[in-house]
What we know:
The structure is a homodimer of 331-residue chains.
Chain A: E1 2-7, H1 11-23, E2 26-32, H2 36-45, E3 52-54, H3 57-62, E4 67-70, H4 74-86, E5 90-94, H5 101-114, E6 118-121, H6 128-139, E7 144-152, H7 156-162, H8 182-194, E8 199-206, E9 212-220, E10 225-231, E11 240-244, E12 247-251, E13 260-263, E14 269-271, H9 282-294, H10 297-321, H11 326-330
Parallel strand pairs in A: 1-2, 1-4, 2-3, 4-5, 5-6, 7-10
Antiparallel strand pairs in A: 7-11, 8-9, 9-10, 11-12, 12-13, 13-14
Helix pairs in contact in A: 1-9, 4-5, 5-10, 8-10
Amino acid sequence: MINLGIIGTNWITEQFVKATDETKSFSLTHVYSRTEAKAESFIADLDKKNIQISTDLEAFFKEDFDTVYIASPNALHFEQAKLAIENGKNVIVEKPITSTIEEFTILDKLAHEKNVYLFEAARHIQEPIFKKIEEVVADHRADLSGATFSYMKYSSRYDDFKAGKTPNVFTTKFSGGALYDLGVYTIYDAVVLFGQPEKVCYDAEFLSSGIDGSGSLTLSYPTFDVNIIIGKTKNSYMSSEIYFGRDTLLLDNGGDINHLDWADDNKNITDVPTNKSENPMDSEAVEFARIMTEKDQPSYDKLLKYARIVNRVLEQARTSAGLVFEADEEN
Amino acid sequence: MINLGIIGTNWITEQFVKATDETKSFSLTHVYSRTEAKAESFIADLDKKNIQISTDLEAFFKEDFDTVYIASPNALHFEQAKLAIENGKNVIVEKPITSTIEEFTILDKLAHEKNVYLFEAARHIQEPIFKKIEEVVADHRADLSGATFSYMKYSSRYDDFKAGKTPNVFTTKFSGGALYDLGVYTIYDAVVLFGQPEKVCYDAEFLSSGIDGSGSLTLSYPTFDVNIIIGKTKNSYMSSEIYFGRDTLLLDNGGDINHLDWADDNKNITDVPTNKSENPMDSEAVEFARIMTEKDQPSYDKLLKYARIVNRVLEQARTSAGLVFEADEEN
């Protein structure tokens, strides 16, 4: 098993550590947190022993472990990942990996120079249900005529925001908003299934803090468009859809995909059998560990290419909508 | 009952005549068709007697009837409606009433001068289920935070189009395409429920004939956006949605609305009871006849205002997408 260090002690880090336990892919050895008490409570909750705690990030990266998982606020990813790579660690960063394509390029180049792995934790594209979608698309590619992906969930932080607070995910300082959160899932859907779009246009509904509470994104491909609807200020229940002429593949959701249906020519709707693991992060943990253990360069290159395109599309979408992050000004 | 003349002998005209029979709102007395045989067959199918047939449009409008229902290809609406009004007929025109806002303005002015009624047959906004939606929106207006309307049906004519034929609905000559067909329903949804949008942006997927096979339309209102997805080249099954913060009203469809659900804060989904008439054109037939019989000017003005805004939005959407009709060049 690969030794794992983690940054942050939130629910998503906990879910990732559980996934690595369930799949015996990584072994947690080091935790970084700003406060020792938080780290201790996190470790106790997970029923772990002999875990090294650091409250100093520089010191943390000098410790002896192989791979770090970073699930801090978006705007912190870049500096933390950069420091990790400089210290020879493999890096798994929650999506989106960076705030700008410039930052992405720097990390990509640095990881190559340092001969370490750089993964963007796009968990859903590793799940069996997504592999099934890829299969269906491959089987019907000749009829492919577009898609609609939607992922819109009312965030409890939005209540805080409306109450006058400034939760990270609703600020330009932390590269927040709908696009750089739920939007990443739907852009991965499009990029993995259809490749790099020719044109990107994002129509955003801005909040007073300058970020996008929700929005509608169009990705144009040579022969069809992909429409994407995302938001953190509304609850949506509509299906996502991939079109094949008269036939349609229905996904219950564009990000957290749990069920597939096939609607045929006569509008008969039938279930498409597939598997769904209990912990949605299991598959990515297994795949990242496998790639590193087997040194599977083609698979790694493919994931890195997806990440590069997705992060480019994210920035193109932002630019088209006039959505500016503080990270844009820093570089 | 009001005497009715009809132009065209297609299925939609038949459905409208049946609606007028069922509701005893109009009495069919005159039929215009280019060929007498077609008119006779149409009348026989409806089991009608003593119907006057005209194969000359000028002569048809000289006949003695009160109101004409026009369901010809879009691009013919304007000249036919104009001629009807000039001959003192009340006019019910299938949506969209015209190809350009200029044409709409001419008809509007002329109808006013000639003291006749001009109706756009936006049937769905007259249905009980739509009145229920208006009620729900009124009850929750303080929380209103946007909507998504979709109406996307694969047209059998698209097969003809792909086989190299030129069906009217897929040509710029007849003002065809997704926007000026299914799109009209969804724009009516937005205009009736939320008023006139501040900004209109249409991203269209063009076919080789120059019309939009499908597209994504954003209508911007001061505090929220409405996203619209329409198409004649794909089959969609996603629900349409109106957002009220954490709550969501679900419509099974944005045009042919048959069912409503309410999704609450806890994501419990419950049926919203409502009525649906067998023939979706019953309600509009009753309402148009009532307005004329009772000379209900406020109701008439409201419908005409909706029609004006919808036709303006249609043209703004076309312009934003670069979608040009032959009707644009003729004026």
